[in-house]
Write a structure and sequence with these properties.
The complex is a heterodimer.
Chain A lengths: L5 H19 L16 E5 L6 E3 L2 E2 L1 H15 L7 E4 L9 H11 L6 E3 L3 H4 L5 H7 L5 E5 L2 E5 L7 H5 L4 H9 L13 H12 L7 E5 L17 H8 L5 E5 L7 E4 L2 E5 L40 E8 L2 E8 L5 E6 L4 E4 L16
Parallel strand pairs in A: 1-4, 4-5, 7-8, 8-9, 9-11
Antiparallel strand pairs in A: 1-12, 2-3, 6-7, 10-11, 12-13, 13-14, 14-15
Helix pairs in contact in A: 3-5, 8-9
Chain B lengths: L2 H4 L2 H13 L10 H22 L11 H4 L13 E3 L4 E3 L1 H10 L12 H12 L6 H6 L22
Antiparallel strand pairs in B: 1-2
Classes of the chains: A alpha/beta, B mainly alpha.
């Protein structure tokens, strides 16, 4: 006869279950100190592409990616100070898609800041997005000594906006990543003027973190891995000692260093994208620094998707990629080389076969 | 008696004409015009394939092939037949396309010789044509448009 009472057995099983859950959840985060003991972390979820089929039916696959990101972010300990949603909550900018996406995001136990994506914008110029997120399309705020700037980098030129007969047509055309009829993304003159004014009151040694949807650098124009006035935006950010840009849109790991500006992209919760050089018909400029994402099992449902935890260490960002079906990655600022680097795979000899994309 | 004497004169004439007209003749000869015509046939089918590739109505949930595979990238037609993890065996590309039609697109399979399947495969292969050195040297185009002889139609998603 067992000496274990049913109660203690039940307690053991419960504890064993908790340990098992903890071992699969991304809890291995290291708390890093920033400045005067004001260390903090941010959750970053992006590119969920919630897509309506009809009525209350949505594409199950994309829903699952976001639901999982929200559930895991809620389990973080220590808790992030806030969560950023990096754009493309919707697939075709519909109210039903933004409502359904926000219904899932609303389950987060944290304040959520939104970044505008082209899939959120091109149906109604982002009006409904403003309503559901409850803030403007570009804005800035200060948090524990860091100046945060959120840009709408997916605007386009007037002729690109006007050339479509209907709003729905414009949305569809701008939603096609490889659509040659699309129009390049810009931050635009008005927003750049606002940015210059905003930065004028910031000390040069204040750490700056910019969130944008498209890369504020020029990588591949065909798929809008590109912002047409990136050079002008970079020039405004150049005088500051420590600038970090975190961007979505590309559905893949990218990172780069241009002057004082460190760039790091985030993964999508919905699906991964090929690297530009795998399309040989047009030249692209993927930053040489980038060790490409692991391509374990292309289109295994959650392959190469996930969300990020951002640590701010000495005013520089460290992105911890929590990947659903792949080995987790960390891209963090290396103070010795003064650039973002992969914690495990930066040296060529350490790379693995699934990081080769062709 | 010679062979010519035994055959009717009309047949001899036909023989002579056939040899004259078909010199050089036979199956190992084709002209630049033939190649152009065959290429045009192929490109027309590839263009139908591009239309299907960007069509949210190919499957049943509005998802299009191009959503995950812009310009049919990460398809790698040249690597098939190969072992495919999703299917657990060595398959041809059309079988993998069917896996995509049934899973991410939540739709129905196509027969291997279905004109739609042939068009999809033609398009994926067309995007892997050797890149011209001119295109590679030119770098990113000044405008997003103007990327080769096949003008891809607009992306079409399923109607709500």
């Amino acid at each position: 006869m067992s000496t274990q009472s049913p109660t203690s057995r039940r307690r053991f099983l419960r504890r064993a279950g908790a340990v098992a859950a903890a071992s699969v959840l991304p809890m291995s985060l290291i708390e890093l100190a920033w400045g005067k003991g004001r260390n903090f972390t941010i959750g970053y979820i992006s590119d969920s592409h919630i897509q309506q089929i009809r009525g209350t039916e949505f594409v199950r696959n994309w829903d699952r990616g976001l639901i999982r990101a929200v559930a895991e972010t809620n389990l973080l300990n220590p808790k992030p100070d806030f969560v950023v949603f990096g754009g493309d909550l919707a697939q075709l900018g519909k109210k039903a898609e933004l409502d359904h996406g926000m219904e899932m995001l609303a389950k987060l136990n944290y304040r959520v800041y939104g970044v505008m994506g082209e899939h959120d914008y091109y149906l109604d110029s982002g009006q409904y997005w403003e309503k559901v997120f409850g803030h403007k399309q570009w804005y800035s705020f200060d948090h524990k000594g860091v100046h945060f700037i959120v840009l709408n980098s997916i605007l386009t030129y007037d002729e690109g906006n006007r050339k479509w007969p209907t709003d729905e047509q414009r949305m569809l055309e701008m939603a096609g990543l490889d659509n040659p009829n699309g129009s390049p993304f810009i931050v635009g003159e008005a927003q750049r003027a606002w940015l210059a004014k905003d930065l004028a009151r910031v000390r040069k040694d204040t750490p700056i973190v910019v969130f944008s949807h498209s890369p504020l650098q020029k990588i591949f124009k065909n798929w809008n891995f590109w912002t047409d006035d990136a050079d002008e935006v970079q020039a405004l950010l150049a005088p500051f000692d420590q600038v970090n840009v975190v961007y979505g849109h590309v559905h893949q790991i990218q990172y780069n260093q241009i002057g004082n500006i460190a760039f790091t992209s985030v993964m999508a919760t919905a699906w991964p994208w090929p690297y530009p050089q795998s399309y040989a018909q047009a030249a692209s400029r993927l930053p040489k620094l980038t060790v490409q994402m692991n391509r374990a099992d292309p289109f295994f449902e959650r392959d190469a998707t996930g969300w990020q935890l951002v640590d701010l260490d000495s005013g520089r960002t460290a992105l911890r990629y929590n990947l659903y079906n792949n080995t987790n990655r960390t891209v963090a600022w290396n103070p010795a080389t003064k650039q973002p680097e992969d914690a495990a795979y930066q040296a060529a000899a350490t790379r693995i076969a699934p990081q080769t994309h062709y | 008696m010679s062979l010519t004497h035994r055959l009717p004169a009309r047949l001899v004439l036909a023989f002579a004409l056939a040899f004259t007209a078909a010199t050089p003749a036979a199956a190992d000869e084709f002209t630049a015009a033939d190649v152009q015509r065959w290429q045009a046939q192929y490109e027309a089918v590839a263009q139908q394939g591009r239309a299907l590739w960007t069509d949210g109505n190919l499957g049943k949930n509005g998802v299009a092939c191009a959503q995950c595979h812009p310009n049919a990238a990460n398809v790698h037609p040249e690597t098939y037949p190969k072992f495919q993890t999703q299917l657990g065996r060595v398959v041809s590309l059309w079988e993998m396309v069917n896996w995509c039609l049934q899973n991410p697109l939540e739709g129905d399979k196509l027969a291997a010789d279905d004109p739609k399947m042939v068009a999809l495969l033609s398009y994926a292969t067309w995007e892997r044509r050797p890149a011209s050195t001119e295109a590679a040297a030119r770098g990113p185009p000044a405008a997003v448009s103007g990327r080769g002889p096949l003008p891809p139609p607009a992306c079409r998603a399923a109607p709500p």
